[in-house]
Amino acid sequence: MKWFTNLKIKSRLYIMVAMLLIVTLSFAVFSILSITPISKDASDMTQYEDRQVFITMAIENIYKIRDLNAGKLYLIKGKSYKTTSGDISAKYEEHTASFKKNIDSYYDSMIKGGHLSEEDKVRRAGLIENIRDYFTNYKEAIAKFDKAALNNDKEAMIAALKEEMLYGDDLCGLAQELRDMIFVTMQKKITSTTDVYKRG
After folding, report:
1. For the chain, what is the total number of helices (H) and then of strands (E)?
2. CB 177 within 8 Å of CB 185
3. Is 29 among the domain residues?
4. What DSSP state is assigned to residue 138?
5. Tell me: the pLDDT tens digits for 15-37?
6. For residues 113 and 42, what is the distance between their CA atoms, to the nearest angstrom?
7. How far does CA 130 lie from the centroid of its chain?
8. Which residues constitute the domain of residue 125?
9. 3 in a structural domain
10. How far apart are CA 129 and CA 152, in angstroms?
11. If you average pLDDT over every residue of the chain, what do you get?
């Protein structure tokens, strides 16, 4: 250290400031590298939560549509269906549009999210296609029921209602299966994240 003591005070100050800067920058780099995985994990968790919300709202839309359909039976028995069908149709369109928006939002979020394996994406995309197909069939059964109700065709109404109920049950089951998949993936992510931080 004799060379250091032989330096002028100005040079010693420069060296000490440079060393202080190097130490400070080292701490800054280390901190940034430590925070980056936490930030990514937080982003992943937000995506999982968003997907949970989208699919939960889609399930709620299905149940609201099913409630409207159940209510139509009482209106038909009371012979007031024709006078209230406009209100029912408006609510039906609202819930149908909301269902489509929620399913599409879920799908977009899933495709853009980079944390799922291709196999998981394909599996979920297939499930979403099934949900969309069942929803199309469900809407067709509802249209059959409405047409039969307006024509006062009781046999056709009963047949359409049975078909509607079956598609509705299957649709709810598929949507719930998708919701459960999100929940399981989220639990795995939480477990793996906490394990990493316990080891770190």
Report:
1. 5, 0
2. no
3. no
4. H
5. 777 888 888 888 777 766 665 55
6. 13
7. 16
8. 45-192
9. no
10. 34
11. 77
